[in-house]
Amino acid sequence: MIDKGRASLEGRLGDYEFPCGMDWEVLRYLKLDPDAFISLLKICADDESLVKMLGIRSRPLSERAFWAEVFEVRFSRLLDDLDDQEQKRE
Questions:
Q1: By C-alpha distance, which of 12, 14, 21, 15 is closest to 1?
Q2: 40-62 CB burial, b ≥16 within 10 A, e <16
Q3: Alpha-carbon distance values, 85 to 2, 20, 43, 51, 80 (Å)
Q4: Helix 34-43 crosses helix 2-9 at what angle (to 10 degrees)?
Q5: Around 61, how many Cα atoms within 13 Å sit in the side-chain half-sphere?
Q6: DSSP letters of 11-65?
Q7: Per the CB 3.0–4.6 Å rule, which of 5, 31, 49, 90 could disulfide with 44?
Q8: What is the pLDDT of residues 71-81, one digit of tens each?
Q9: Rg of the chain's alpha carbons, rounded to an integer?
Q10: pTM of the complete model
Q11: What is the pLDDT of residues 28-66, one digit of tens each?
């Protein structure tokens, strides 16, 4: 998503889409809209400074942990909706 955001800024996005469906899930997880993310890219010279600014800990993940995080981001909206439904029933 970072690379696509930077490519969008530079006018070289090509056939890629930003934000795509997965980007929206990550943005929702980060509580950002695409314009806010692009604004951060403008002031962060590199990926490391962006990650630091977002308060994300950069750490190596096992393959299993990586896919668990992808699942969490991908389905966070669904899980939030299920939580909301459960709270309404209580």
A1: 21
A2: bbeebeeeeebeeeeeeeeeeee
A3: 33, 27, 40, 33, 9
A4: 80
A5: 10
A6: T--TT--SS-HHHHHHHHHHT--HHHHHHHHHH-SSHHHHHHHHTPPP----HHH
A7: 49
A8: 777 777 777 77
A9: 15
A10: 0.62
A11: 888 899 999 999 999 998 988 998 888 876 556 676 776
What one-letter code names the amino acid at 52?
K
Q: Are 80 and 72 in contact (CB under 8 A)?
A: no
Helix (H, G, I), strand (E, B) or coil at 75: coil
Tokens of 19: 């934000």
Decide: residue 37, CB within 10 A, 0-12 exposed, 13-18 middle, 19+ buried: buried
Residue type, 76: S
d(CA 19, CA 25): 10
Tell me which residue of 61, 19, 17 sits closest to 37, measured CA to CA.
19
